[in-house]
Each structure stands twice: as structure tokens, then as C-alpha cells.
């Protein structure tokens, strides 16, 4: 399978993961401090949503890269592909 080659997309994905990592550290701290389970569960749900969102974004970036390579790089194709993949990302975002 191919790797993501677009540096902007890779940076975006890494930033999303770093944010989720910070949230996880916060959850660990909450557990250590004996915070209420409901508060911890709420933060866990937020991290899961962040990771799901990152996964969807990675998938769409991959699709954009690979379909762009196969369909050619004309401005018209790129614009249409971007429009369709934005819709795909929105639809996949609704699954969570």
C-alpha cells in the first residue's frame, strides 16, 4: 500500500494524533487524581471521536492521492475529485 506523500496532509494527521495523545495524558491524570468516572468516560469518548476523525481524514487523503495519480492531474479532475472526497469525508464523519 502507498504512503501519504503530501507533507501538508501528513502534518495535519500528526497534529491530530498529538492532540489526541495530549487528551490521553489528561485522562491518565484524571484517573490518578481519582476524578469521577463519568468525567473520565466523557474524555475517553472525545479521544475516540478524535481518533475516528483522524482515521477518516487519513483515508480521504489517501484516496485523493491515489485517485489523483490514476486520473491525472488536470485542474478540472483535481477540482472534481476534491469536491467528491469532501462529500465522502462528510458522509463518513456521520458514521461516528
From TrEMBL:
Gene3D superfamilies in UniProt: Metal-sensitive repressor, helix protomer (1.20.58.1000)
Domain of life of the source: Bacteria
UniProt GO molecular function: DNA binding; metal ion binding
Gene Ontology BP term (one): negative regulation of DNA-templated transcription
PANTHER family xref list: TRANSCRIPTIONAL REPRESSOR FRMR, TRANSCRIPTIONAL REPRESSOR FRMR-RELATED
Family, as annotated: Belongs to the FrmR/RcnR family.
Entry protein name: Metal-sensing transcriptional repressor
